[in-house]
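Dock copper (II) ion; give full complex structure.
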Amino acid sequence: MTSRRRFVGAAATLALGASATAARRRLAPAWADEPPGVRTIRLETREVLWELAPGRTIRAMAYNGRIPGPEIRAREGERLRIVLTNALSEPTTIHWHGVDVPNAMDGVPGVTQKPVQPGETFVYEFEARPAGTRWYHTHATEHRQLDLGLAGPFVIEPAAPEPLPADREVTLVLDDWATGAGPALPPTREGVAGGRGEPGGMMSGMMGRRGMGGMMGGRGMGGMMGGGRTPAYDTMTINGKAWPATEPLRVRRGERLRLRLINASAEHTHVLRVAGHALRVTHADGNPLAAPVEVDAIPIAPSERYDALLHAERPGAWFLYCTQPGHADAGERLAITYPGHEGAAPAPPALDVSGLRLWHYGLGRGRALPGVTPGAARTWDLTLGGGMMGSDRWTINGKVYPDTDPLRLRRGERARVRFVNMSPEAHPMHLHGQSFAVLGVNGARLPAPLVKDSVDVEAHMGSVVVEFAAHNLGDWLLHCHKPMHMEGGMMTLVTIR
Ligand SMILES: [Cu+2]
């Protein structure tokens, strides 16, 4: 954009002989009020009719008419001014997930800003950092607006070149939908991202869920399940489309692709696999690992991101798909084709993951987290609870937001948070404003801390220990990223003064 603006400005001056400023104002009024060194991006929220797949069109909410919203690409440190115009008939805000924005730009209604009312405009301005696969999404009546499509990818390119370059990048946003048009998929209750230390433990959890799926079969009124408010999710999409409407990925032999995987789902963990190919995980939540980790499939909890390298070295036609029960059939697959195999039908997705190498937190070695200096850390124990007997009440230390106790920190202090999950569902816990290092999972210390901003705490006494340096001033939300759980109370504040 910057170079294009310069070019347009220069061309106009040559052609018209007018002052560059006047020419620029006439050609592109939006740029006229743009301070030097700032790039302006415009996002408009509005209701749309969105075709998930042929014959399955729904009333949804979109940024700039697209689901997911347009990919924002920025250079690390670049100053962005993002102008949000709300053309919905209800208030909204945008949260910049994984970006260390100033507190007033964080997009949390009632905490960092007033909700943006219908017809209003709000200007977000911040420096894009840290580098990595980030995303943006609504933070207002999130259960409804996130479910209806208000999310998009946000890629911050590092100032230094990536140590493992790729020939091409492909961003894939995974999402779950409750359209009321199909049988309900089994819920992802227990969580698989942490891995329970052993793939075997994880598998038994998955078998358990498959059993639950049968019990949860029918769909209730208005696409909602009978017990509680969890919608009956029936459609899974990749970049806003369900198979067979997903866009095929055409690759050449020898090509190296960087897949940027973003789970924008409200409820479901996805286990992503490319048939016939290994995946090399290079980044967790956008943050680089010290070395890539080769796996066969990657569990991704809601709000998590993984970057993975795919080396195209097996000509044919293959599915990229989710191995979770029902997901691939509900739309979560796309065809990967090599030249000469464009019309070929890939083998049906194999859902059995026994014997496969599955990513889990214990496999990744993160790099040092900037700002985390040695020294004593204050520790908070947060017990995640609620959800008993189908209740919609989700708690931290027995309390429901806004009655939860804030974690009060001074800038520069180090905080250690120990999550223990006493509830029957997994909770992907997300901290705003700064990333944390994951030190331990389910009682085992990780070989090296993994830097993330969301971490899945597995159900039934799963635990996670994280640590961060309080460096970003303000009031930051720490919450479960399943919107029904956050709206049910599983939120607290981290205040940094
Ligand atoms: Cu939760």
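Observed: Residues 71 and 153 are 5 Å apart (CA to CA).
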